[in-house]
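Lab notebook page, bench 4
Experiment: in silico fold of construct C2
Operator: M.H.
Input chain length: 467 residues
Purpose: comparison with the prior construct
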Amino acid sequence: MFSKINMIIKNWLASGEVPPEKVESVYKLFRIRAIAGMFLAYMGYYITRNSFTLSTPYLKEYLHLSVSEIGFLSSCLLLSYGLFAAVMGALADKFNVKYFIAFGLAMSCVMNILMGFSSAVWMFVGLLVLNGVFQGMGRAPAYITMANWYPKVERGRVAAVWNISHNIGGGVVAPIVALGIFLVGTSAWPIASYIFPAIAGGVLVCLTLLIGKDVPAKEGLPTLDKMYSTELSAETQFKENAKPPNEMNPWQIFIHYIVPNGNIWILAMLDIFVYIVRFGTFSWLPLYLLHVKGFSKAEMSVAFLVFEWAAIPSTLLTGYVSDKLFKGYRMPPAIIAAIVMAAGLYTYWISTSIVTITIAAAVVGCMIYIPQFAVNVQSMEVVPTFAVGAGTALRGISAYLFGAMGGTAVIGFVVDRYGWDAGFGVLLFGVAGILIFSILAHFGVKKLYKKHDLLLCKQQAQAEELR
């Protein structure tokens, strides 16, 4: 089968277009390769980003940094990431997404290598800012890929599979660093913490370039709405263009299709609260468990990995449930998750048992990625396919400028002055925000889907008249 497809591809390369009788088979192969490339690349992004988070106990011990100073360093990465995710998201709509995401990962690996040879705080500040710039190239290509290759009826399951890439990447950092410590020793912790993850990221860059694909139109294939009759073209679904999208620059697309879109603004607000809770729990987990709960470094590493990997089954189940049980509505699981998350967070806060705390961390990790997943998928469904990167830009800058900063720098400031109890108050406030905006997002998209169904019926009626 694959030899025949390879022959088809060779013939197509000469003409630039897949023969009509072979479109379906090539399309199915290429869309698997496209999402596989994004999966591998995004794993690498989280390996080269979370390497810093796992190094914070060593920074505190060897560089004698305070909680506020570590929070400031974390916020440097997150702030630059949020700002440049907006720029990169808008640019990604105009570039080959495979090369775009691979280049960003390669440069993030370089930043990690340089951190491995750094010792001054100002050097970490500069390198973390630069790492955030290149990390900003990771999100939009994945959303663009899913929005252009997979129809709405499959998107929940596909997005769920892709979404676990950052759980795997984020969770596998601990074993990678542990292997590094075993091989080079604790005294060489910068090499174990930064260079070993960079090597893993470099391998994933090569695999992404080998496997990945760009959007269908640039691979000689029909667009999604032509492959699946149930998909409305973006122009019809939202509004008529003043001029074709390929003549619009990223800024014009952003102004024309994102700024007036109330649904994407609601999702941006939801993202802010998701990131307050996610980063407020995740970023401080190593220090909190070591210095407040009395965990050993080995026990902390287990809890860190469990926090990330607990989200894998819940995300996969959410993708299936939102497609099948809730008929494409993404927010009902997020609403349920917010309620369960509050209970898990409270238990994580008050318990003194290592086992109970680890389980509670798993519950929070399991639940926090459900609304994040819901936002990721729904954001692809409330904007045109050619504006997915621009929509990601808005969400990225709001989530990281306000959400991640709130979960790192603000909580670090609050904890230093008022203690960990006040920090948990901020986290529970974030959970309340998740619940409120999940409900608003659900009602917003119900109204949009009703309009979608009416337009689809109108298109089908017009097609019947032409026959």
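Observations: Residues 233-243 have pLDDT under 50 and may be disordered. Residues 23-222+258-456 form a domain with the Growth Hormone; Chain: A; fold (CATH 1.20.1250.20).
Next step: discuss at group meeting.
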